[in-house]
Design brief:
Layout: H1 4-21, H2 30-59, H3 64-94, H4 101-128, H5 133-156, E1 163-165, H6 169-181, H7 186-201, E2 205-207, H8 212-232, H9 238-280
Antiparallel strand pairs: 1-2
Helix pairs in contact: 2-3, 2-4, 3-4, 3-6, 3-8, 4-5, 4-6, 5-7, 6-7, 6-9, 8-9
């Protein structure tokens, strides 16, 4: 007769041996766990957008409060995904990251900052007016394609340290969602969403969120979540607060490329002037 405790001990030992035999490239690090949290938030954002906004609308049982709560939850989850995305990079630089880290990060970003905001745009178009559904779907497709191209380009190009080429996908996703929350007329909103998609695949350089910029990014995310909470709970002035936050996000999306382009042009001009001065000596 076999001793159950001995059998259990042998099983645990064998399982531990199997784990120890795994190649280092397949072992998840702390940074990878944060990246998976990013992916989970993106999936849940799609879930709440579907169950709380789209399904009630299609069934004719839409409740304004319920839809607002679900929309705010979906956007908050996308914001939380951006926090995970920010933290996994910081942790990966401080601690080790597995060989799967870059691939996991790209796949998670595609879910949270490509699929989730694009789906949010589609549902917004359908809820606003069924006639807008195809147009909003076309704009959403552009967002997804832009994120896919941007992530692919990021994986195979090398830039100078401290900058991204093209609007970062988390920043782009939050801008797309902010455009929807601003409740502007349909046509300008769609045009602005297409503009954000273009900025994500552009060559405009954006600073990486490190040091103080990372702290500011984290603080802005928390403030945005609080604005969404105030809006959901019908706090006096909550709607105006949300609109202000969304407007500031859109303004930042418009202003940063202008500053970045101006700085790049000035750098090029300075280099040309220096080259001419050197040639005249």
């Amino acid at each position: 007769m076999t001793d159950p405790d001995t059998h259990k001990s042998d099983w645990v030992t064998e399982l531990q041996d199997e784990v120890d035999d795994l190649p280092l490239s397949t072992r998840l690090s702390i940074a990878d766990a944060l990246t998976l949290g990013n992916a989970i938030c993106g999936f849940l954002a799609v879930y709440f957008t579907t169950t709380g906004v789209l399904v009630p609308h299609l069934n004719g049982t839409s409740d304004g409060g319920m839809s607002k709560h679900s929309a705010a939850t979906a956007v908050s989850l996308m914001l939380l995904a951006s926090v995970f995305d920010l933290c996994d990079g910081l942790v990966a630089r401080k601690l080790r990251s597995s060989a799967m880290g870059a691939e996991l990060d790209n796949l998670s970003d595609l879910i949270s900052f490509g699929l989730a905001p694009a789906y949010f745009v589609v549902v917004w178009g359908l809820v606003a007016d069924d006639a807008y559904g195809k147009v909003s779907a076309a704009a959403a497709v552009l967002v997804v394609i832009a994120v896919v191209l941007r992530l692919a380009r990021f994986s195979c190009t090398t830039l100078r340290d401290g900058v991204f080429q093209g609007m970062p996908s988390p920043f782009g996703a939050m801008t797309v969602v902010s455009l929807v929350l601003l409740e502007l007329p349909f046509a300008p909103t769609i045009a602005a969403i297409v503009g954000v998609a273009w900025l994500m695949v552009s060559r405009v350089e954006y600073p990486k969120p490190r040091g103080r910029l990372a702290a500011v990014t984290f603080a802005w995310t928390i403030v945005s979540m609080l604005c969404l909470t105030a809006w959901t709970l019908d706090v006096p002035g909550g709607h105006q607060l949300l609109q202000t936050g969304a407007a500031l996000q859109c303004m930042a999306a418009a202003v940063i490329p202008c500053f970045a382009t101006t700085r790049r042009v000035n750098t090029i001009r300075a280099a040309r002037r220096e080259a001419r001065a050197t040639a005249l000596r």
